[in-house]
Amino acid sequence: MFRHCRLGAQYYEDLKTKYENTSDNLIFHGRQTEGLSSFYFKSNLFVLPGLGGLAISESMAYGLPVIASTADGTEKDLIVNNITGILIEEMTSETLFTQIETLYNNRDLLKKMGENAKKAIESSYSFENYYKNFKESVKYACKK
Question: I want to staple 114 with a disulfide (CB 3.0 to 4.6 A). Which of 24, 27, 35, 63 is the partner?
Answer without folding.
Answer: 63
